Amino acid sequence: MKDTHGRRSPLWPGPLLAGCLLLLVFSLGCGREESAPRGGEEKSREVSSAPETSSPTSDPELLLARAIQALGGRERLSAVEAFETRFVATQPGVVMRGRMRQRIPDCFRLEQDVWNAHLVHVIHGREAWKTIDGVHMAVEDYDRRQMEEQGFLARMSLLVGLLDDETVEIKGLGVQDGFEWIEVAVKHSDLGPYQLGFDRKEVLLRRVRFKTDVYGRRDRVDLTLRLEDYRNVGGIMVPFSASYLMQGQEVIQDMVEEIIVNPEPDASLFIRPDAEGLPEIIERRTRTFDGLVIQGFKDDPARLDKRIESLLREANLERTGPWHLLYETTDDETCRAVCPVVRKKAPATRPSGSERPRVDRIEGRDVLTVVVKDPTPDRLRAAEKRLRERARSLGRNASGRIRDVVWSHEIRQMQLVLD
Prior knowledge:
- The protein has helices at residues 16-28, 60-71, 74-78, 141-157, 301-315, 377-393; strands at residues 42-43, 82-91, 94-103, 107-114, 117-124, 127-132, 135-137, 168-176, 179-186, 194-199, 205-212, 221-233, 236-246, 249-261, 282-285, 289-297, 317-319, 324-327, 334-343, 358-362, 366-373, 398-406, 411-418.
- By secondary structure, the chain is α+β, with helices and mostly antiparallel strands.
- It has two domains: 16-270, outer membrane lipoprotein receptor (LolB), chain A; 282-418, Alpha-Beta Barrel (Multidrug-efflux Transporter 1 Regulator Bmrr, Chain A), CATH 3.20.80.
- It is elongated.
């Protein structure tokens, strides 16, 4: 497969889109020296569209000054050097729990537990790296662009640095849909521009509109970030509910569980580990999901991926995670492919080919997992052997079935299903 810039892309890149939203939400909550759990002191009403009685914003600097004061004041926001957040992000068919740590301006670490894997994405200055269950994965152009955008969104959302940042241009856009808007353009960059909408009564940031790369789309997509449920926590107004809207439909919703501002510094969190040992075997419980099931061949994941994408379009299904091969042993030539899906709201079209999409309910199971990098038949067989030996050492009976999860061209995760 190719991404929008003609380079090879992962078969499923992981839930990086949620990270952009989470960074913006969490940064707005910064400004306290202590932890800020959910359940703050005072709620702020969501402001509906108000009559457009004021003239267009002619002074964006004045609007920013008012917004900074409404958020908590320049002194509090300027004191933020780092923060740590725990969160829950949900989108159709997927629930992600994670932890995000950022040291302003250029260190960022996002950890997420999703689809029976622990994903880590890191930016450290100009270096970017990512891992799955401790095994390094290649950083694609898609990953780098998403992580760079996350870092900028975090800095931008603090507001206080915008007026002094020579790399951005700010202009007023006037009143639209009951909000006062400014636009932030990044000089000499593919990022942005970003349009920030502030409610006219409390001058709190309620909307962010921008274009971004979304996996599987050729062109950049218009997204709207909606911030709601502001609460006064220690003198700082924090949005505890946030969601992304794409083409008018909500695609991601996030809830903040905890924020820690200026935690004890730990530079090692952002430094790429040098050595990799033997990949760890981990015991997990998979969740129940709906899966598109087709017959396939193990030796051509790219061809299978195209076939799955075609069936998804015809059946009006949306992929929610990496698909996996299901077989008895690694020596089998044929297998089934199972792709986690959710049904879209629009009606499905009738399949153009002879193959009828089949969707089964895949029940959650206990599994042992291990990551295989640069998979070859010998490496896959060795991974299966390790899993079966571990099952015997734990006194667990294996069902005999192997789930071979295709995360990318270079990364597979072998899962041994346990009885």
